[in-house]
């Protein structure tokens, strides 16, 4: 690329951008997931946990966690020259939920990360995307030492609709995260096709 034009003399391609949210409870691995796949150094808005936040930041199950996202995480993946994926990690604590409406504007879909040790922490995210008809995939982040449960048991515990994909993943592993994101895109495309078919009939 030379002075905004390609070397072949063609104007630069204006890429189509897709936006995916990464949501879930406090300490579930959202920041880790974004960092695992982002081609740029992720934008992070983490602050140290303090004594003042102890009454509202429940660290049971994640006692080693020392920071928390206070605005969002941001990462980017270039899929092709003309296709770029933006990842936005949402803050997990209830006091930051007012930001979700802004972050979800124009989103193709979402990943709801779940931790089987604290499954109730992702209920709010599941409810949020269901109410707004934003396609989402539940990714069960497989933490070391956490119990493994059958997919059907997790699905029942979260009261998920049958068509909501649920996958096991490792938020630290690039290939695992890529599979989750592919699942979000495929699910969003399937949902869009169903809506178009319903309108046509």
From TrEMBL:
CDD domains: Ras_like_GTPase. Pfam families: ATP_bind_1. Transmembrane segments: none annotated. The keyword GTP-binding applies. Keywords: GTP-binding, Hydrolase, Nucleotide-binding. InterPro entries: Gliding_Motility_GTPase, Gpn, P-loop_NTPase. It comes from the Bacteria. Gene3D superfamilies: P-loop containing nucleotide triphosphate hydrolases. Belongs to the GPN-loop GTPase family. PANTHER family: ATP/GTP-BINDING PROTEIN-RELATED, GLIDING MOTILITY PROTEIN MGLA. This is ATP/GTP-binding protein. It comes from Streptomyces werraensis. The lineage of its organism: Bacteria, Bacillati, Actinomycetota, Actinomycetes, Kitasatosporales.
């Amino acid at each position: 690329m030379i002075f905004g034009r390609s070397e072949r003399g063609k104007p630069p391609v204006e890429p189509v951008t897709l936006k995916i949210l990464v949501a879930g409870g406090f300490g579930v691995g959202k920041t880790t997931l974004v960092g695992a796949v982002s081609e740029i150094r992720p934008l992070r808005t983490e602050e140290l946990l303090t004594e003042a936040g102890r009454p509202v930041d429940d660290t049971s199950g994640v006692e080693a966690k020392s920071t928390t996202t206070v605005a969002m995480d941001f990462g980017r993946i270039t899929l092709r020259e003309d296709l770029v994926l933006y990842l936005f990690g949402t803050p997990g604590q209830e006091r930051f939920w007012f930001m979700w409406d802004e972050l979800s504007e124009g989103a193709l879909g979402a990943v709801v990360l779940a931790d089987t040790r604290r499954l109730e922490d992702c209920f709010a995210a599941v409810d949020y995307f269901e109410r707004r008809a934003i396609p989402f995939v539940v990714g069960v982040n497989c933490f070391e030492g956490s119990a493994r449960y059958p997919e059907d048991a997790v699905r029942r515990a979260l009261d998920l609709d049958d068509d909501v994909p649920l996958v096991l993943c490792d938020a630290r592993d690039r290939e695992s995260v890529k599979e989750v994101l592919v699942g979000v895109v495929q699910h969003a495309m399937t949902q869009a096709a169903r809506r178009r078919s319903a309108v046509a009939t």
